[in-house]
């Protein structure tokens, strides 16, 4: 069972950048799809970005397209989320999640398709 640990969160001002990282404990991570989700206070968890095992498929939520970039390094068992031009509405706890199998008709954005989750890292963007 793969364990995931997020890092890189913090407090920034609007317009600034942060880079989140997700470190995996098992080499099987190399074969897993990886997603980033976020949850703001009082709101449901929402999809942010996802990448398949070999980086051939990458999807973003419309709200972050053009500002966020997801990537992975299978040799280092890590995945990253580069977040640029942050906005106050990006404030949330960010989670990385992994799945060994994603249905072929999936857009990788459904949280219930990911059985493995990290503990989350807080991102706060002030105006």
Task: Please characterize this protein's 3D structure.
It contains no helices and eleven strands. It is an all-beta fold and 127 residues long. Strands 2, 4, 5, 6, 9, 10 and 11 form a seven-stranded mixed sheet that branches. It has a four-stranded antiparallel sheet with strand order 1-3-8-7, with no helix packed on it. Strand 4 and strand 5 form a beta hairpin. The chain starts with a strand and ends with a strand.
Mean pLDDT value: 95
Report on the biggest sheet: 7 strands, mixed
**How many angstroms separate the termini?**
40 Å
Computed CA radius of gyration, to the nearest angstrom: 13 Å
Q: Report strand %.
A: over 45%
Oligomeric description of these chains: single chain
What is the element layout, followed by pairings?
Elements: E1 4-7, E2 10-13, E3 18-24, E4 33-39, E5 46-51, E6 58-60, E7 68-73, E8 78-83, E9 92-99, E10 116-117, E11 121-126
Parallel strand pairs: 2-11
Antiparallel strand pairs: 1-3, 3-8, 4-5, 4-9, 5-6, 7-8, 9-10, 9-11
Key descriptive features of the protein:
single chain, 127 residues, mainly beta, seven-stranded mixed sheet, four-stranded antiparallel sheet, 11 strands, 0% helix, globular
In short:
0% of the residues lie in helices and 46% in strands.
């Amino acid at each position: 069972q793969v364990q995931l640990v997020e890092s890189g969160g913090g407090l920034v001002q609007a317009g600034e950048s942060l880079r989140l990282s997700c470190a995996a404990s098992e080499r099987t991570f190399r074969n897993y799809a990886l997603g980033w989700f976020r949850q703001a206070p009082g709101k449901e968890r929402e999809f942010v970005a996802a990448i398949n095992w070999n980086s051939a498929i990458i999807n973003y939520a419309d709200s972050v397209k053009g500002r966020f970039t997801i990537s992975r390094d299978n040799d280092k068992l890590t995945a990253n989320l580069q977040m640029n031009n942050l906005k106050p509405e990006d404030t949330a706890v960010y989670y990385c999640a992994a799945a060994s199998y994603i249905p072929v008709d999936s857009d990788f954005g459904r949280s219930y398709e990911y059985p493995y989750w990290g503990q989350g890292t807080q991102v706060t963007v002030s105006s």
